[in-house]
Amino acid sequence: MTESRIDFRRAKFLISAPDIAHLDQYLPGDLGIEIAFAGRSNAGKSSALNALTEQKSLARTSKTPGRTQLINVFELDEQRRLVDLPGYGFAQVPLAMKHKWQQALGEYLQKRACLSGVVVLMDIRHPLKDLDMQMIEWAVASEIPVLALLTKSDKLAQSAKMKTVNEVRKALVDFGDWVQVEPFSSLKGTGKPKVLNILNEWCHPQWLTEEEQASLEE
Ligand SMILES: Nc1nc2c(ncn2[C@@H]2O[C@H](COP(=O)(O)OP(=O)(O)OP(=O)(O)O)[C@@H](O)[C@H]2O)c(=O)[nH]1
Ligand SMILES: [Mg+2]
Questions:
Q1: Nearest 5 degrees, angle CA 18-CA 20-CA 25?
Q2: Could you say which of 3.40.50.720, 3.40.50.300, 3.30.450.90, 3.90.1150.10 is the CATH number of the domain covering 8-217?
């Protein structure tokens, strides 16, 4: 099957939803294909989205953790979307809200029919915290492929970077092909071609029939 390549530079803002639990009311999840960007607050989600789409201010970035409160949805084409999820694990958020937030994330991963991949972004200097592991486990349990992206890789020297990448790969080996691990730097563009290849694959999910694939290309 010949697949058309998705031009991620075409991404444009579609909607903001106030919370995950209500996203389905704004955008029915049985339509099209969605790729979510999840990660701890300040992990570099918005920066990665901007780097991958080659747009400086598609997603808002900030030095203050917890900046992205809304769920921001960006459209690639009529059928495909990228979703910038609010960061989890933000220290200043009350515990009850954190629990509510985790629950909503879990439900999103389990119930969102259009979700065809989750990018779990982690600062390469602090990978695989409990909530990251939970995200990965939830996604794989729902048979959604995961890209564990080790962000801000420019902060480490090459040898330290590869050491962490190998350690994280080893820690996630039991998930098999469901989880891929790559280093990434929004600042330097490191890892960008690999990530775009993976996202492109997710945009053409195998669970669609050839006819459905063809209708997506129209
Ligand atoms: N050196 C370096 N800094 C980065 C990189 N990516 C992000 N940052 C910085 O990390 C901080 C947080 O980045 P954001 O992209 O806003 O992080 P986020 O995950 O969207 O954060 P929330 O929306 O608050 O959850 C900002 O100060 C960015 O400039 C990177 O690749 N290299
Ligand atoms: Mg953000």
A1: 80
A2: 3.40.50.300
Q: What is the tens place of the pLDDT at every residue in 138-155?
A: 999 999 999 999 999 999
CA-to-CA separations, 200 to 21, 58, 141, in angstroms, rounded:
27, 19, 22
Tokens of 181: 């691990």
Domain ranges of the chain: 8-217
pLDDT at 124: 98
| CA of 78 relative to ligand 2 center, distance in Å | 24
Residue 24 has pLDDT above 60, yes or no: yes
Mutate to test the pocket of ligand 1, among 37, 41, 42, 188 (most ligand atoms within 8 A of CB): 42
| Spacing, Cα 1 to ligand 2 middle (Å) | 36
Let me know how many helices (H) and strands (E) the chain has, helices first. Answer: 7, 7
Alpha carbon of 107 to ligand 1 centroid (Å): 26
Angle at 41 between CA 21 and CA 108, to 5 degrees: 25
H or E element, residue 118:
strand 115-123
The ligand minimizing its distance to the Cα of 186 is 1
Dump pLDDT digits (tens) for 53-111. Answer: 999 889 877 666 655 567 889 999 999 999 998 888 776 777 887 788 888 888 888 88
Mention every residue, 6+ apart, whose C-beta is less than 8 A from residue 71: 16, 17, 18, 19, 20, 23, 83, 84, 85, 86
